[in-house]
Amino acid sequence: MDGLNVGVAALDEAHRDMFYLMGDLSEAVHAKSVRAALAMARDFVAKVEGHFDVEGEMMTRLGFPGAAVHQAKHAATRDKVIDLERALSDENLGLASSILGELESVYFRELLNEDMILANYSSAQAS
What is the CATH number for 18? Predict the structure, then answer.
């Protein structure tokens, strides 16, 4: 769980919430529980969008020089999360499982690295 911490409490809490929700979502997909998975996916979309909004405001406030790249990664991840919701709406569990794997292995690992850069920049600005 420490790998989800970047040292900014609001971001760390959101990372943990999304991590646990993604785990529950993955379990529901693998159990072929479409209705439960779809409800969780909708919650996941809302959590991701809310988290990205908080980070966007933080980057703007700080004048973060990496904001454009970070925001582009947010957009790609947001699109992938919406693809997950659509796959579940279509009851395509195979595609949903594949998308979850991509989110876990690529998108969120990259974004955690980006969030660490943002957190370090924030700390440096506060000093």
Answer: 1.20.120
